[in-house]
Design a protein that fits this description.
The protein has one domain: Beta Polymerase, domain 2 (2-Layer Sandwich). It is 38% helix and 15% strand. It contains 5 helices and 5 strands. It has helices spanning 11-26, 66-70, 135-149, 151-164, 172-197; strands spanning 33-37, 51-57, 75-77, 89-94, 123-131. A 5-stranded mixed sheet has the order 1-2-5-4-3, sandwiched between helices. The radius of gyration is 17 Å and the shape is globular. This is GrpB family protein.
Amino acid sequence: MQLTIEKYNPDWKKQFEELRQELEELTSTLHTDIQHIGSTSVEGLSAKPVIDIMIGVNSEDDLDKIPILLAGNQYVYYEKYNEDMPYRRFFVKLKAKPSEWSFPEQINKGDEIPEKLHDHDLRMAHIHVIPVGSEHWLRHIAFRDYLRTHPVVLTEYQKLKEEIGKKKWKDGNEYNDAKNDFIQDEEQKAIRWYKDNKSRI
């Protein structure tokens, strides 16, 4: 598949705010911290036009309270990813209810992901639910803020995204794997920088 990589769009901030308000209402029974992450959260950076959102919860005990709260609201829950990433719950927000494309609302371990569900043109957002204060929460926030404040690194990342954006990929996961070496290297620098500068950010 050929993924659509677009130049930075200021409307991505507005789209995030609208989604944040919706998610705050849906998860109002829990204490959450909802953050815009990923490339669409960094001004000047090209990205797939799909908003990455991280919902922070108090503890791992709260992770499995989220799926029922999002059910029936254009979200597909990828329960099958829980085994490999037990610290996270992952959802895709679609542009219409899953039933309009005959998609299930939940994809369990052993289920095949419908081929058409890999189509990013059908997606509005990726939702990552992670405990606040965990190493995984930290690395997402640190990398975002590092890119926002380090233009040389942002430029390097932009060039990489432009290169791999021209290629065809099996799915979004394969595209993400192509960025993995760069991200992992820069994340370590970002985490050290973030810990040293957190009080000034």
